[in-house]
């Protein structure tokens, strides 16, 4: 997955998506539903890691776009997907198809 520029976007997006799921479905329920005393610290640290990964995902996406490896339309989809739970996993299919199409075109050209 990390062998091409678009593969980097896919890989970082998957990691960022997993961090969001951990935040939404493990850390936050521990704090707000289970009301465990350590819940605030768990949400803080998981949220911090997720925020850093989100920033890296945005940076990698715009860097790859700036180098001409992504279309503006795909960057828009990736930006929207990054703020929706499960979004990075949904956009991954579009990115994979684009990655395969551009790799095939590059290899044939």
Features:
elongated; 4 helices; 81% helix; mainly alpha; 109 residues; single chain
Give a structural overview.
It is a single chain. The chain is mostly helical. The chain has one domain. Helix content is 81%, strand content 0%. The chain contains 4 helices and no strands. It has helices spanning 5-32, 39-66, 72-81, 87-108. Helix 1 (5-32) runs antiparallel to helix 2. The longest helix is centred in the first third of the chain and has 28 residues, at 5-32. It is elongated. It starts with a helix and ends with a helix. The model has no long low-confidence stretch (mean pLDDT 93).
Short description:
The protein is mainly alpha-helical and 109 residues long. It is built from four helices and no strands. Helix 1 (5-32) packs antiparallel against helix 2 (39-66).
Note the topology.
Elements: H1 5-32, H2 39-66, H3 72-81, H4 87-108
Helix pairs in contact: 1-2, 1-4, 2-3, 3-4
Number of domains: 1
Which structural class should the secondary elements be placed in? Answer: mainly alpha
Q: Gap between N and C termini, in Å?
A: 22 Å
Percent in helix: over 70%
What is the count of DSSP helices, taking H or I runs of 4+ residues?
4
Mean pLDDT: 93
Main β-sheet: number of strands, strand sense, barrel status?
Answer: none
Unreliable stretches (pLDDT < 50, length at least 5) are none
Percent of sequence in beta strands: under 5%
